[in-house]
């Protein structure tokens, strides 16, 4: 058994460094940008035609929170090639497995994290806005310099949890032929006929990675809350 582990471990780690971690980081960063933009649109007080944009982002959030991530991956990678658009994509929308995976993970993360960010922004007392307006700040400046820094501290724990979940969810990328850690473990298990050993090994690697991220989350929470603690 130890020979199997020592032979498979370097391959699994290499797949994690080449695909699992980069996919998680890139998707999360793109998802955060989408989440922030979505949250800002939803809390905006603008009316008129802006309601159409609000309706679109509400539908986006509802769609990705109401359907399984695996189904979303299949639609983007296997389904879009059948979506033929005259003049734009007459042969369908064909994406590489990596692009399809990052796109799906980013959209899914953006939908979930947008609710976290929206709640964090709305949790800041209205007095903070009024104080900013009283010294001549615009809404955009107040948001950037006063509200968002506080909202980031509030939203840090749930956002960190979302990232940890995303690292584990990247295992679903194996379903669209991305050779990440779980896919490599399946390939090796098919060769050595030791699925229990291989799946336990890859599970242990995910556990180690998520444990390190949990420690980092705790450290960041202490750093961002040090002034609050001192004030109390």
Automatic annotation (TrEMBL):
Any Pfam family the entry gives: BPD_transp_1
One Gene Ontology CC term in the entry: ATP-binding cassette (ABC) transporter complex
PROSITE patterns: ABC_TM1
Domain ABC transmembrane type-1: 17-214
Membrane spanning residue stretches: 20-41, 62-83, 95-113, 196-216
Keyword DNA repair part of the UniProt annotation: no
Topology term for the membrane: Multi-pass membrane protein
Keywords attached to this entry: Amino-acid transport, Cell membrane, Membrane, Transmembrane, Transmembrane helix, Transport
Organism domain of life: Bacteria
InterPro entries in the record: AA_ABC_transptr_permease_3TM, ArtM/GltK/GlnP/TcyL/YhdX-like, MetI-like, MetI-like_sf
NCBIfam families to which the protein is assigned, alphabetical: HEQRo_perm_3TM
Protein name: Amino acid ABC transporter, permease
Organism: Liquorilactobacillus oeni DSM 19972
């Amino acid at each position: 058994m130890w020979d199997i582990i020592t032979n498979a471990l370097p391959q699994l780690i290499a797949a994690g460094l080449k695909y699992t971690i980069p996919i998680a980081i890139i998707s999360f960063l793109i998802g955060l940008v989408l989440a922030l933009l979505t949250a800002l649109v939803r809390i905006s007080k603008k009316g008129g035609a802006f309601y159409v944009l609000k309706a679109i982002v509400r539908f986006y959030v509802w769609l990705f929170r109401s359907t399984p991530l695996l189904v979303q991956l299949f639609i983007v990678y296997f389904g879009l090639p059948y979506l033929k658009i005259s003049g734009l994509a007459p042969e369908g929308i064909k994406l590489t497995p990596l692009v399809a995976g990052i796109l799906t993970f980013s959209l899914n993360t953006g939908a979930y994290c947008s609710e976290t960010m929206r709640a964090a922004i709305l949790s800041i007392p209205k007095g903070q806005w009024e104080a900013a307006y009283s010294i001549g700040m615009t809404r955009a400046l107040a948001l950037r310099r006063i509200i968002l820094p506080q909202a980031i501290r509030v939203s840090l724990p749930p956002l960190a949890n979302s990232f940890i979940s995303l690292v584990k969810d990247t295992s679903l990328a194996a379903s669209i032929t991305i050779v990440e850690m779980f896919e490599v473990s399946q390939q090796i298990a098919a060769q050595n006929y030791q699925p229990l050993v291989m799946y336990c090994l890859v599970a242990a690697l995910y556990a180690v990675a998520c444990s390190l991220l949990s420690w980092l989350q705790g450290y960041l929470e202490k750093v961002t809350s040090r002034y609050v603690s001192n004030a109390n």
